[in-house]
């Protein structure tokens, strides 16, 4: 809790996990740096919780190794791995007080009472649960319970914290509050944190790096900004971001380095788009986030006039649904004060630097 | 008025549907109980009499040696049977919960006796405990010439034979209840305990058992009611013998009703059983209803 | 193996003493539970001379069905020597109407208590749950008198009524809890569609209650088949159920005891609940769990 001298980087090397015939993870590699906050993000069944349980040692790997703090811990018990863990269902011991919950592991491990007392007091103060120490979990609210669960992890004084969807059972307001708390905790402890969630907002707000997972594979491992702005494929593009990205099927046309995306009547010049590999004409899918569409005065002279179908006010912003010349709908995020109305038109343009292009097969970024 | 008619019809239908239950409750459960309690305070013997004698039947009852033996048998049987069934049933549930092979087979093996009647149970164990051909003979057959297991024909030990048969019959039921309780425990609790480095026995003792209060209470109440009702097993296994060494209160009531024709004494005994049950069940119901109100 | 292996893949799982002890415990207890069934089976296939030689656990030297035939059609219960088949058919005669009537009354009561706000409904339900614990001995004498007065003592209708009365609390609980778990909107929608009390019961609720019907049938079939005391008192000499006949065959024979016949008769009596148990699998456990949450 105080100064951290032990090493606590985590490394997952070629891990295979399967249950019977079903392969959950295959040859998975992941390196997490000291003091890094990494979020495993993905829909349910993508293998993110399996991976976390394997790192914790709660689940055997079929093949591969887990390294924590420079030690190969593949065969070690969870308690010997230098980790602490927080669960979605809190997993508090119901018949013990908060103090009992936080101290039980330490007592069983034979730690001197004075040291236990010190750690519990310190952790309780940090989480503002000092006044709850003598209550039972059944007397606490959801948010308080999760604080206690975090407290139980804190007293272990571990170098690596594992969070398994810790905020999923809480209502929206508490979720935001505890999210901030966890982030603060990370800055203060400078421990390595691995955090599993299916909530992309949590991932974006908390992570140093996000690992977006699907089908047991890490699709993209990068900073929140990169994941958001330059999704590696259509899955990542559609999973991250709310309201979600617009997709327009079409073709890349042109030659001699002067390329344009053509979808229906829409033609967008692609100067400035950072292709990952030399571009070639052919079918493609254009992706653009609602807030990256330039609208109104910002749209510039090349703007097209898009007919407005519907408006969803969201407070600070409004989401304007327009019709593509091809007939498909797409959404544009405009200022909440903007004067727009259904039936009117909105001048829009698509800046090449903020676009994403995917091939029309597997949906890889071009 | 017209609009009210279907409502009224439904209301009447509901009353009609509940009338059998209401009748049974009032006539049988309340009426017959009151009747029995009343007879127990009269001078009835072979024929019912309406001469009120207060608690004189109860004086006779508790001075009756056979009743005294019945009651002490019930206590010995009840305590041993309940403790043994609860402990064995819980251990079996824990053992099965360790991801053992052939879990389904084992569960069926432990529970099948419960599907059979006490008569069958009693007769099987009567045969197994038969000193001439049963387990004693098997032990001697293995060369232990002095091996002695003739509890069923000895007055001071026969009640333990009933306990063995009872546990064989009921331990599986406890196991089923406990296993359901164990499986109901959040898997994350086990994970948290492993991260905390708690050895499994410690998790059971300090965390799981305190969480299983409801399962233990349910099992205990079920066992306790079968203790008070204990009748078939004694009839089939020993018919109360040798002598009157394995008599039980329920059998006392039945014998005095139908064979010895002493209605007054029989109903006094039945009323005493009722009071015992009430003393056991009332606190439990009280706690349950309080818990429900709190929830 | 001097060089340390670099850990990779699954943890090695050496056979620990704890694991060995666990399986030893399970095997020994499984033997305790299985031995009676095994002994019953082998004894029933032996001849009396072989049984007299001892060797309780040995397989029959010359397996013979003779004891089974004798038990079924020629064993003596008191004076009559028509075998246990008489009891079998009596039990069937008692079982079928008792199961149907008790489930019908119980489900209707449970339904009326779960959806309809009848005055005193919760009091009725609470009272039914409490009286479920009262020992039968309290009711027996008054019920015999009442039944004699209305002329259904010692008859099939009498014993059916008895099983309905004493099955009512459990059946009501079972169905009430099940219906209470259904969404109330279902009931409201049916009301809006204009269905009345019995229409909703028969067309909406009972078709949805199939799982509970299965559980109730399992519970009642085993319970009524295994009943001894009620059949003994209320069924009448002509209709004594199988358990009573079995006890008579085994325990009131004059002269030499035929242990092989006794065991064959016992197995025959246990057959119906055993078949129900093994055929129903998890449903049986579910029935126990549903019946166990009394109160």
Automatic annotation (TrEMBL), chain A:
Domain ABC transporter: residue ranges: 10-240
Organism of this sequence: Alsobacter ponti
Pfam assignment, any one: ABC_tran
GO molecular function: ATP binding
Record family assignment: Belongs to the ABC transporter superfamily.
Database matches in CDD domains: ABC_MalK_N (cd03301)
Protein name (Swiss-Prot/TrEMBL): Sn-glycerol-3-phosphate ABC transporter ATP-binding protein UgpC
Keywords: ATP-binding, Nucleotide-binding, Transport
PANTHER family linked to this entry: ABC TRANSPORTER ATP-BINDING PROTEIN, MALTODEXTRIN IMPORT ATP-BINDING PROTEIN MSMX
Gene3D superfamilies associated with the record: 2.40.50.100, Nucleic acid-binding proteins, P-loop containing nucleotide triphosphate hydrolases
SMART domains noted in UniProt: AAA
Lineage, uppermost ranks: Bacteria, Pseudomonadati, Pseudomonadota, Alphaproteobacteria, Hyphomicrobiales
Keyword Nucleotidyltransferase part of the UniProt annotation: no
Domain of life: Bacteria
UniProtKB/TrEMBL annotation, chain B:
Membrane topology recorded in Swiss-Prot or TrEMBL: Multi-pass membrane protein
Key words, A-Z: Cell membrane, Membrane, Transmembrane, Transmembrane helix, Transport
Domain ABC transmembrane type-1 as annotated: residue spans: 71-286
Protein's cellular compartments: Cell membrane
Sequence intervals crossing the membrane: 12-38, 74-97, 109-128, 157-182, 203-228, 263-287
InterPro entries: ABC_transporter_permease, MetI-like, MetI-like_sf
PROSITE patterns xref list: ABC_TM1
PANTHER family on file: ABC TRANSPORTER PERMEASE PROTEIN
Family classification: Belongs to the binding-protein-dependent transport system permease family.
Name of this chain's protein: Sugar ABC transporter permease
Organism encoding this protein: Alsobacter ponti
TrEMBL record, chain C:
Entry-linked SUPFAM superfamilies: MetI-like
Domain ABC transmembrane type-1 per the UniProt entry, residue ranges: 88-280
Residue ranges of coiled coil: none
Principal cellular location given in the protein's record: membrane
Keyword Transmembrane among UniProt keywords: yes
Entry superkingdom: Bacteria
A Pfam match: BPD_transp_1
Membrane topology: Multi-pass membrane protein
Record key words, sorted: Membrane, Transmembrane, Transmembrane helix, Transport
Compartment(s): Cell membrane
UniProt-listed InterPro entries: MetI-like, MetI-like_sf
TM region(s), chain numbering: 20-45, 94-116, 123-144, 156-179, 200-225, 263-285
Keyword Transferase: no
Protein family (similarity comment): Belongs to the binding-protein-dependent transport system permease family.
Protein name from the UniProt record: Carbohydrate ABC transporter permease
């Amino acid at each position: 809790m105080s100064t951290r001298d032990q090493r606590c980087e985590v490394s997952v090397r070629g891990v295979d996990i399967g249950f019977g015939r079903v392969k959950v993870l295959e040859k998975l590699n992941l390196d997490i740096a000291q003091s890094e906050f990494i979020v495993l993000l993905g829909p349910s069944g993508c293998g993110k919780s399996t991976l976390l349980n394997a790192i914790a040692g709660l689940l055997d790997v079929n093949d591969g190794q887990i390294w924590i703090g420079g030690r190969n811990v593949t065969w070690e018990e969870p308690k010997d791995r230098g980790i602490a863990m927080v669960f979605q269902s809190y997993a508090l011991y119901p018949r013990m007080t908060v103090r009992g919950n936080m101290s039980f592991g330490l007592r069983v491990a034979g730690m001197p009472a004075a040291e236990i007392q010190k750690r519990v007091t310190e952790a309780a103060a940090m989480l503002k649960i000092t006044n709850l120490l003598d209550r039972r979990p059944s007397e606490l609210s959801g948010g308080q319970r999760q604080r206690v669960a975090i407290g139980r992890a804190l007293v272990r004084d571990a170098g690596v914290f594992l969070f398994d969807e810790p905020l999923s059972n809480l209502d929206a307001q508490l979720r935001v509050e505890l999210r901030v708390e966890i982030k603060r905790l990370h800055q203060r402890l400078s421990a390595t944190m691995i955090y599993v969630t299916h909530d992309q907002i949590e991932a974006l707000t908390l992570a140093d790096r996000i690992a977006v997972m699907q089908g047991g594979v890490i699709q993209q491992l990068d900073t929140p900004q990169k994941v958001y702005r330059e999704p590696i494929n259509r899955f990542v593009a559609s999973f991250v971001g709310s309201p979600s990205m617009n997709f327009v099927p079409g073709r890349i046309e042109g030659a001699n380095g002067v390329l344009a995306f053509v979808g229906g009547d829409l033609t967008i010049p692609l100067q400035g788009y950072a292709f990952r590999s030399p571009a070639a004409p052919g079918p493609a899918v254009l992706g653009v986030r609602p807030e990256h569409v330039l609208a109104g005065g910002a749209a510039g002279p090349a703007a097209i006039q898009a007919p407005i179908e519907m408006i969803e006010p969201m407070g600070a912003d409004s989401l304007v649904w327009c019709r593509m010349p091809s007939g498909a709908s797409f959404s544009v995020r405009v200022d909440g004060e903007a004067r727009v109305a259904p039936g009117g038109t909105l001048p829009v343009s698509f800046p090449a630097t903020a676009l994403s292009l995917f091939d029309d097969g597997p949906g890889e970024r071009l | 008025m017209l609009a009210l008619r279907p409502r009224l019809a439904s209301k009447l239908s509901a009353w009609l549907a509940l009338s059998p239950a209401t009748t049974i409750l009032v006539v049988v459960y309340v009426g017959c109980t009151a009747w029995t309690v009343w007879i127990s305070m009269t001078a009835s013997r072979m024929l019912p009499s309406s001469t009120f004698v207060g608690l004189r039947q109860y004086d006779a009852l508790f001075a009756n040696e056979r009743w005294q033996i019945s009651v002490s048998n019930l206590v010995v049987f009840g305590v041993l049977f309940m403790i043994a069934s609860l402990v064995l049933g819980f251990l079996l549930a824990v053992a099965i919960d360790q991801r053992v092979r052939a879990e389904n087979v084992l569960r069926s093996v432990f529970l099948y006796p419960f599907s059979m009647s006490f008569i069958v149970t009693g007769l099987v164990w009567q045969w197994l405990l038969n000193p001439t051909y049963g387990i004693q003979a098997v032990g001697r057959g293995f060369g232990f010439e002095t091996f002695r297991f003739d509890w069923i024909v000895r007055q001071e030990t026969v009640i333990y034979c009933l306990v063995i048969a009872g546990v064989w019959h009921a331990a599986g039921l406890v196991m089923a209840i406990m296993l359901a309780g164990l499986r109901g425990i959040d898997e994350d609790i086990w994970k948290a305990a492993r991260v905390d480095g708690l050895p499994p026995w410690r998790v059971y003792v300090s965390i799981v058992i305190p969480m299983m209060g409801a399962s233990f209470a349910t099992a205990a109440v079920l066992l306790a009611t079968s203790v008070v009702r204990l009748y078939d097993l004694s009839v089939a296994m020993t018919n109360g013998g040798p002598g009157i060494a394995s008599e039980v209160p329920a059998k006392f009531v039945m014998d005095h009703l139908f064979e010895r024709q002493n209605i007054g004494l029989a109903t006094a005994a039945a009323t005493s059983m009722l009071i015992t049950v009430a003393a056991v069940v009332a606190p439990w119901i009280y706690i349950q209803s309080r818990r429900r109100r709190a929830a | 193996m001097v060089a340390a292996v670099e850990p990779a893949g699954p943890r090695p799982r050496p056979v620990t003493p704890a694991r060995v002890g666990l399986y030893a415990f399970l095997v020994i207890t499984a033997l305790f539970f299985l031995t009676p069934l095994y002994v019953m089976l082998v004894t029933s296939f032996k001849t009396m001379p072989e049984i007299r030689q001892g060797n309780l656990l040995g397989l029959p030297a010359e397996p013979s069905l003779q004891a089974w035939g004798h038990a079924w059609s020629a064993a003596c219960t008191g004076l009559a020597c028509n075998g246990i088949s008489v009891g079998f058919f009596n039990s069937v005669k008692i079982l079928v109407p008792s199961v149907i009537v008790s489930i019908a009354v119980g489900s209707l009561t449970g339904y009326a208590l779960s959806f309809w706000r009848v005055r005193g409904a919760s009091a009725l339900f609470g009272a039914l749950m409490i009286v479920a614990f009262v020992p039968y001995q309290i009711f027996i004498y008054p019920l015999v008198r009442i039944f004699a007065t209305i002329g259904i003592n010692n008859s099939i209708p009498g014993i059916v009524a008895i099983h309905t009365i004493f099955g009512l609390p459990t059946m009501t609980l079972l169905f009430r809890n099940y219906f209470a778990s259904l969404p109330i909107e279902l009931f409201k929608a049916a009301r809006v569609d204009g269905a009345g009390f019995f229409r909703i019961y028969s067309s909406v609720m009972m078709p949805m209650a199939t799982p509970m019907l299965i559980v109730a049938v399992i519970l009642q079939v085993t319970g009524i088949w295994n009943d001894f005391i009620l059949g003994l008192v209320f069924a009448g000499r002509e209709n004594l159920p199988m358990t009573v006949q079995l006890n008579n065959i085994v325990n009131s024979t004059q002269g030499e005891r035929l242990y092989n016949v006794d065991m064959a008769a016992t197995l025959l009596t246990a057959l119906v609940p055993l078949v129900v148990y093994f055929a129903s699998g998890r449903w049986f456990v579910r029935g126990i769990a549903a019946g166990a949450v009394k109160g």
